[in-house]
Amino acid sequence: MARPMGPVRLKKTSPATLAVGAALCIFILYFLIGSSSPDFSASRKATAAAHHLSPPTSPFRRSTGGGKPKPPPVARYNLNNVTITPDPLENRENILLLTPMARFYPEYWDNLLRLSYPHELITLGFILPKTKEGNTATTELQKRITKTQKYGPEKDRFKSIIILREDFEPPLSSQDESERHKMHNQKIRRAAMAKSRNSLLFSTLGPSTSWVFWLDADVVETPPSIIQDLARHDKPVVAPNCFQRYWNAEKKEMDERPYDFNNWQDSPNAQELAKQMGPDDILLEGYAEMATFRSLMAYMHRDDGHRHEEVPLDGVGGAALLVKADVHRDGAMFPAFPFYHLIETEGFAKMAKRLGWQPVGLPNYKVYHYNE
């Protein structure tokens, strides 16, 4: 037989528990109500309006309360006030340093840190593929960025850094030097490179940018003063000569050899080849199967030549390239399609010339490519 239950006694809730519960309820209500209204704080407006890349992009949102919030600020930029001079250091001109990156080389980053141009005037922009190698490179890049920007000395920290990821599939599964330089891979490979360069350029070129410095991720050695050195020529497009250091087995010592063959002066033979091509065919440089007989800046170097000697160019490479921002603002980009039978950086040189900007090269001013 079941026994009747006695009276149930409830445990008295302590005042501390009630206080914690009340605070939690207030926090939840604040979060739900506050998150639905836009943040138009004065500090946020000031930061957005002063951003060197673009105007603020916060939309005007309807208020959930009774009042009408103020719209985001309108930013005004006068491009006539942006100087592009042979002495960017004296005039404190902003540099946009852009690098398409498939692999991360520590030597590349170490070289960046050695640049003598004030880092607070340099914005870095990167674009990486969505591949396994690209993921690894992104991780390593972010580690170096954190180390420099958060923990490094003030002089090493850059003005800002932007990282983009490609939104298309890479045409080649491998980035090995032997694979990416095969002739039959060039059109699809360089078309993809052109798309990356354009995405990076159009996403980062800001209204205060004076110069755009293109530097490949596998260029691991440049003079620290390269930005000032190239800018002093006051040319719209300036290309140094790209070499590669290697172990010479015959001499039993370190040696160097020309690397970038896309800096060239056109030839009648190349022009004749172009006339015989279909509309979707491209001319390539550095391949025996397509003898263009162009004059290559790689072979114009002289040990006794003046470091700042200039030569006019009809095609340029992208290993290292200083461009006045106005050239890109005028519309000169990197064609991912045959443009006068040229593509990517060589097509860019042709486009710049068509817009009235003459590229020049410095055969005796050298930078160095990584040797795989």
From TrEMBL:
Pfam families membership: Anp1 (PF03452)
Q: Which domain of life is it from?
A: Eukaryota
Which keywords does this Swiss-Prot/TrEMBL entry list?
A: Golgi apparatus, Membrane, Signal-anchor, Transmembrane, Transmembrane helix
Q: Where in the cell is it found?
A: Golgi apparatus membrane
Q: Which GO terms describe its cellular component?
A: mannan polymerase complex
For whether the record's keyword set contains Lyase, the answer is: no
Q: Which InterPro entries match?
A: Mannan_Polymerase_Subunit (IPR052086), Nucleotide-diphossugar_trans (IPR029044)
Q: Where is this region: Disordered?
A: 51-75
The protein's GO terms of the molecular function aspect are:
alpha-1,6-mannosyltransferase activity
How is this protein positioned relative to the membrane? Single-pass type II membrane protein
Hey, which family's this protein in? Answer: Belongs to the ANP1/MMN9/VAN1 family.
Protein name stated in the entry = Mannan polymerase complexes MNN9 subunit
Native organism: Achaetomium macrosporum
